[in-house]
Amino acid sequence: MTALPPHPFDDRLYALRTRWEQYVADGQLEQFIEFAVAVNSLAEHFARLRLPGLSRLCEGLENAVLARIGDAGSHPMRPQEMVALQRQIDALFGSIATSQPSVPVRRAEEKAPARDLEWHRPRSVWIVAAADREDVADGLQRQLNYFGFRVLRMGWDAEGEVEPGEAPLAVLFIPAGSTAEAAELARIEACRKACPASQLFYLGVASVIDPIVALMRAGIDVAIPDDEQPSMVVNRLLDLIQTEEQERYRVLVVEDSRVASTLICRTLTEHGIDSHAIADPGRLLEVLESYRPDLILMDMHMPRFNGVEATRVLRQMSAYQTLPIVYLSGESNIGMQVEALRLGGDQFLIKPFNPVLLAAVVKTKIARFRDMQRSTRVDGLTGLLNHSAAKARLKAMVESAAPGERFTVAMIDIDHFKAVNDTYGHPVGDQVIRGLAWLLKARLREGDLIGRYGGEEFIVALPGTDPALAQTVLDRIRVDFAALPHTHPGGALYATFSAGLAAYPTVDSAAALTESADGALLDAKRLGRNRVEIADC
Ligand SMILES: Nc1nc2c(ncn2[C@@H]2O[C@H](COP(=O)(O)OP(=O)(O)OP(=O)(O)O)[C@@H](O)[C@H]2O)c(=O)[nH]1
Predict the structure, then answer these.
(1) How far, in Å, from the CA of 234 to the mean position of ligand 1?
(2) Confidence at 248, pLDDT banded by 50, 70, 90
(3) pLDDT in tens, 375-393
(4) Does this UniProt record's set of keywords contain Isomerase (predicted)?
């Protein structure tokens, strides 16, 4: 097996390798299931880190493993099957060893903040552009540089462009037409192979399914339609460098058999999922309220009333209409299963259950449920938290603040924005709003609150930061924003913003913090705009 250098995924790789070696030595089904769990855990880890190429390789291995789980009688597997799996494992380990996820570095011209805080650092991006699309590439490069990305340009014909250790965050392919030719697909395939950890974008694809499928097969992760502005890709890249902190998944198990619920909860725990079990479905509403699960695993046959009846009740309540409900039951009657799905269930799994399948179903359903919930909290124009979500987050920050904890809230407003709209039109105004949103995303930290509070007004909250440091940080962003060109048909315009700051716990409620920061913002406007003022409390 390929020898591995020290690597950030070491623990997971070690678990995967030793479990495989144990299975190779003893050939027991239980060991194979443990190995399957290790493969699943590594695949999820790569997905979380947004390393699409490695995720894909790992998922390929996972599929091959799942197909061979079978039962105790099918283990140890035949020697040829073992060799085939060993080859897949070697290919995966080889790719991991050669791919080095890019390490963030501080921008050369950026000074370290006065007190060291982990503000976002740039990453490198490659742009592969056709000769007649250099203008699009130039515009994108300028924007990417402003948002702190390092850009490397190359043509479609370039060969051997890969420098060792130079794995980019993303590669942007800008083709001459809207359909990829065979040579272009080959170029993308070569890049996919060379950069398994990078996200590959193809800009300007026609909205026709066949060419998009061909691009995906060649290794493209995101095909951007030709009617979407190329600059939108900047936002997607900023999303890539901001991994949202994830709360652990929570599953409520409704199951009257103690043995079954213990087994289910143990499987969930092994996959890093929190669970809570109740034996009496009569307690469902009360526990849903207190535990707030992301999914219910529901038994079908229970005393008093059954799982389908419980599901029907939940589906009549607006709070639980979209909550995923998966039946886990020994019921083998297909008619009953179909009826259970018609009456509100999302999926039907049979007991005794396959632990890997159960975990995969639970995780994918929860991931989709959380994505859907997230979309109701996000502002469509900028991708930031919307007004109500930002307000709720600030309230939660105040309520959960430990004694002695401090943070600073900023209200930010673009100067003379009405004139931008009036002179250049609404779409250009929108681009200016996006520009500021992206700059904030690029420059602030993962744990900072950034929201679009109103039209051209933003709210920011910086944990562990006093007003003086917050002023330094926002002032730097203010200067960069003033230098950011916003293109319009006649050239480029420049905009500025003003900001007001208020500090917790000097001001100790969410409403008073926004009010106080708003007051300081008004002062900044009165004092001439393009400045950051601290509220005097
Ligand atoms: N393009 C665009 N404009 C918006 C959006 N939301 C609000 N606006 C416009 O933003 C402008 C805000 O203008 P004002 O509140 O008068 O303030 P201002 O011109 O920015 O002036 P000062 O804040 O005093 O510097 C209004 O013309 C709104 O129509 C939006 O989503 N897109």
Answers:
(1) 23
(2) confident
(3) 888 888 888 999 999 999 9
(4) no
Alpha helices (runs of H) in 125-181, residue ranges in sequence order? 134-146
ipTM: 0.94
Residues 387-534: name the CATH superfamily: Reverse transcriptase/Diguanylate cyclase domain (3.30.70.270)
Residue nearest to atom 4 of ligand 1 (CA): 455
Q: How far apart are CA 443 and CA 256, in angstroms?
A: 51
For residue 413, which atom of ligand 1 is closest to its CA? 23
Q: What does residue 353 show for φ and ψ, rounded to 5 degrees?
A: -95, 155
Contacts of 316 (CB under 8 A, 6+ apart): none
Measured distance CA(449)–CA(234) in Å, rounded? 20
Second CATH level (architecture) for the domain 124-241: 3-Layer(aba) Sandwich (3.40)
Ligand 1 centroid distance, CA of 431 (Å): 13
Instruction: Please tell me the distance between residue 418's alpha carbon and the centre of ligand 1 in angstroms.
Output: 5
Q: Is 135 left (phi over 0), alpha (psi -120 to 50) or beta?
A: alpha
Find out whether the beta carbon of 175 lies less than 6 Å from any atom of ligand 1: no
Q: Which residue lies with its CA nearest to atom 16 of ligand 1?
A: 418
Sign of the torsion formed by the C-alpha atoms of 30, 33, 35 and 41:
negative
Q: Is the CB of 456 under 6 A from ligand 1?
A: yes
pLDDT digits (tens, 9 = 90+) for 496-527: 999 999 999 999 999 999 999 999 999 999 99
Q: Are 226 and 248 in contact (CB under 8 A)?
A: no
Most informative mutation of 411, 421, 424, 481 for ligand 1 (most atoms within 8 A of CB): 421
Could you tell me the residue ranges of all domains in the chain?
10-98, 124-241, 250-375, 387-534
Q: If one looks up domain 250-375 in CATH, what number appears?
A: 3.40.50.2300
Ligand 1 site-directed mutation target among 456, 481, 531, most atoms within 8 Å of CB? 456
* Residue 230 neighbours by CB under 8 Å, 6+ apart: 136, 139, 140, 174, 203, 204, 224
Helix (H) or strand (E) holding 500, with range, is strand 497-504
- State the architecture of 10-98 in CATH terms: Up-down Bundle (1.20)
